[in-house]
Amino acid sequence: MIHFKCRQEYYPFSKIKRFIIPDEKVPWHVKFPEYNPPYYNDPNKSFFVDKNIEDQSFKPAWNAMDGHINRKSFMKPYTIEDGHPLNPIGRTGIKGRGLLRHWGPNHAADPIITRWKRDSLGNIIKHELSKKSILQFVGIERRDSGQWAIPGGMVDANELVSATLKREFMEEAVNALEKTPEEIKTFQSSIDKLFSSGFKIYEGYVDDPRNTDNSWLETSACNFHDEDSSIVGNIPFEAGDDAANVRWIDMDKDLDLYASHSQFIELVSQKHNAHW
Ligand code: RP5
Ligand code: MG
Ligand code: MG
């Protein structure tokens, strides 16, 4: 495995240029003596953000549950070099915490809501070439990059992944943060039903453009499938929070989604033996 999206020329929303790395020099074990990337910690400090490594009061428990923060990786235990955790895939062309909250792994959750594509009579539509049924998923357009993505988000401290999956879907694809409790009540049971049985499709590293040599995204991606569309039909989709748009997207190999999201969608299409 190698990463690409976190080796683009500029670090997102900054003027910082990443150090250029040939593909074969991405893995740490390949010698690269001239490697001298810039160091960047986003100055925007919120309550959730880890302190700088040099801060004497910052005593993280690496590769472990650190209080309510999960610093364990889904991959093998990561190495610490000069006090800094090392990206398990390799070099990214930039050191530091970048835009992410935590040094080391930043855990996210990605809910993949699916239904079959149907015609106006309710018949499932098959793809002309593959002759396989077309699966659709709920995608959002990210406000930060303008790219289409799964409506995922970060697992908060002390939050169960199952809760993150539902909360992020509610915030980004149903705009729940701007709905009254009465409005939410009208569709809450449909959401609960949809999220009552999920299938874990992926757990691991995400090639996210915000990754650095010392901090990176990992995710738990879970599929919630509505075989006869009876549940999703009751959900009033509306983009919210960090999403600018929401829509059903046909699954197809030509999809170009944010970070490694196309890879997760492909796994879902394989699971349902759908068109790809
Ligand atoms: C992705 O970042 C993860 O797979 C997840 O979808 C997302 C979480 O970050 P935010 O949406 O909270 O920015 O790569
Ligand atoms: Mg979110
Ligand atoms: Mg999000």
TrEMBL record:
Pfam family of the protein (one): NUDIX
Q: Which residues form the Nudix hydrolase domain?
A: 116-271
Q: Which InterPro entries match?
A: NUDIX_hydrolase-like_dom_sf, NUDIX_hydrolase_dom, NUDT9
Per the record, the domain of life is Eukaryota
A GO molecular-function descriptor: ADP-ribose diphosphatase activity
Native species: Cotesia glomerata
Quote the protein name from its UniProt record.
Answer: Nudix hydrolase domain-containing protein
